[in-house]
Structure formats: C-alpha cells, structure tokens
Specification:
CATH architecture: 2-Layer Sandwich
Order of helices and strands: EHEHE
CATH class: Alpha Beta
Number of helices: 2
Largest sheet: 3 strands, antiparallel
Distance between the termini: 17 Å
Strand order of the largest sheet: 2-1-3
CATH topology: Ribosomal Protein L30, Chain: A
CATH superfamily: Ribosomal protein L30/L7
Number of strands: 3
Strand content: 25-35%
Radius of gyration: 11 Å
Number of domains: 1
Amino acid sequence: MSGDKKKLAVTLIRSQYGRIKKHQDCVRGLGLRRMHHRVEVIDTPENRGMINKVSYMLKVEEL
C-alpha cells in the first residue's frame, strides 16, 4: 500500500555549485535540479541519509 507511506517535501534553499561532489550527488539523488525546486520523496532510510548529509542546503517538511 503505497498510499500509507510518509512523504517529505524537500526544497533546495542554497546553491549546490562549489560544493563537495558527494553533496552534489545527494542533491541530484533527491531529484532536486535548481534553487527553490521542491520535490516530494518517500521517507526511507536512504532518503533520510541523503537529506542528513546535505541538510545545510535544504528545507524539509513532513507531509
């Protein structure tokens, strides 16, 4: 039942340019493409790990 999974709204609030390559990869892995781009991701340990790594660049809200 995919409707029961919690989702997170993730917004890129700081530029990814000039950052460590692994941090840029995490941003791209979350599906974020540009500044102020907002995506909804499923709350999984993998996504949480990427969010935690680049938390200084993101705004995260629970849906």
